[in-house]
Amino acid sequence: MPGIRKEPVDRWIIDPMKRFLSNSSMSGIVLFSSALLAIILSNSPWSEAFHNLWETKISVGLHDWQLSKSLHHWINDGLMAVFFFVVGLELKREIISGELSNPKAAMLPIAAALGGMLVPALIYFALNPSGETSGGWGIPMATDIAFALGILYLLGDKVPVSLKIFLTALAITDDLGAVLVIAFFYTSDINLTSLALGGGFMAVLVIANRIGVRNTLFYGMVGIGGLWLAFLMSGVHATIAAVLAAFTIPANAKISEDLYNRKLASLLDRFKKAKPNNSPTVTTEQLHILEEIRYVSEKALTPLQRLEHAMHPFVSFVVMPLFALANAGISLSAESLSHLGSNITLGVLLGLLLGKVIGVFGFTALATRLRLASLPDDMSNRHLVGAGFLAGIGFTMSLFIAQLAFDSPVFIEEAKMGILLASLIAGTTGYLIIKSANKVK
User: Fold this and answer.
1) Which residue, 27, 191, 194, 279, has fewest beta-carbon neighbours within 10 Å?
2) 146 near 134, Cβ under 8 Å?
């Protein structure tokens, strides 16, 4: 911006970092690079050390009370709770004022997401109707929003805005479906005492929201130190606690937009009239005015949006890449390649590749035929098929559900093979279809 002095650290470090973090496609690239690195290390001379690293025990607690888990477990149950917390914030924002707030507008992505979850699950279940392998039906239901949107943004401004909105709403609805599937179908034995304690902490958070508590540190302490820990001990997956905690974060601004405009105009007018001291520092009067501007600006922003904005880079560039590094590693040996013919691999592969496209396109066509929704004018059927393929990029959520669905390392490896192969094919195919659709008038 003209008039702002740029120091060398701004030009060489801070500004490039800001551009990197704000680039929509970069998170997908970093996530893909982490998965690729995990596969390379898993097939290198350091593979044993790499896999042993994730089994390192880390203990948290005092004296006789200790919570001891492997690094892999802390990432999947701890760091991924942060990921699900941000998912919960996005869900709440979309339901309150986003694409899911208008029932008529939301019907199209909801129908697409529903089809994109049901058809893949049915395809998997058709190949694995019984036994322990049948528990993986939830794996091909998921869509990785970071990868899907990252590929879409690589196509640039020629992609219809309505397609970006449609895929975002579809992926967020899909996330809600995945959360519900985890909550109801992928939980271990329930400890009712811990669950009741978690309910108590949840009540505290809800009451705090109702009476107007807006301090995000309070919600963090009660949500993590109380709700998350209680759910972790209860048998209900701890990531569900993160989503529930996110829904208690206040989503209302303390100062309305109109009042903010008037207050800011008044404060800026006072700042212009304040006598400067003609030095690099501001005067006491100017300092107080700037403090008021910061206070008013903070109150004009909802705690929910402030948290989501602050946490998104951490989740995109730390949590998800670490999860990929810890979970995407797979040995590409003759034995592992034989998994390609297993019913788990085929169920996941066909569920994500065929099931997503058939479900997204079929249920969308049904919704438009029944006049429940209409396809935007700038979106074609070819765009819709491309979006169906991008929805077939399961990756993060699919890998996460695979860890919950199976205890057998062999079954997990087979699921990983299907997830990685399907995500690669789906992403490439979706990119090429949407690129070709943009050339057709």
Assistant:
1) 279
2) no
Report pLDDT for 280.
80
Contacts of 82 (CB under 8 A, 6+ apart): 242, 311, 314, 315, 319
The class (CATH top level) of 25-187+237-252+302-439 is mainly alpha
Exposure on the CB side of residue 431, measured as CA atoms within 13 A: 16
Give me 213's structure tokens: 């508590």
Q: Which of 49-58, 98-107, 130-139 has the highest mean pLDDT?
A: 130-139
Is 243 within 8 Å of 179 (Cβ atoms)? Answer: yes
What are the Cα distances from residue 292, in Å, to 285, 289, 295? 11, 5, 5
Angstrom distance (rounded) from CA 84 to CA 404 = 15
E strands, 19-169, are: 57-62, 65-70
Long-range contacts of 90-96 (CB under 8 A, 24+ apart): 90/172, 90/175, 90/308, 91/172, 91/175, 91/176, 91/243, 91/246, 91/247, 92/246, 92/247, 92/249, 92/251, 92/304, 93/251, 93/304, 93/305, 93/308, 94/169, 94/172, 96/251
| C-alpha Rg value of the chain to the nearest Å | 24
Residues 233 and 74: beta-carbon distance below 8 Å: no
Taking the mean position of all CA atoms in its chain, how far away is CA 228?
18
CA gap 361, 363 in Å, rounded? 6
pLDDT for res 172: 80
Lowest model confidence (mean pLDDT) among 69-83, 196-210, 303-317: 69-83
In angstroms, rounded to a whole number, what is the distance separating the alpha carbons of residues 286 and 4? Answer: 18
N-to-C CA span, the chain: 38
Alpha carbons 2 and 11: distance in angstroms, whole number: 14
CB of 137 closer than 8 Å to CB of 121: yes
Read off the pLDDT of residues 381-422 as tens digits, 9 standing for 90 and up.
888 999 999 999 888 888 888 888 888 888 998 998 999 899
The predicted-structure confidence for 4-18, as pLDDT tens digits, reads as follows: 555 565 555 555 545
Q: How far apart are CA 158 and CA 145, in angstroms?
A: 20
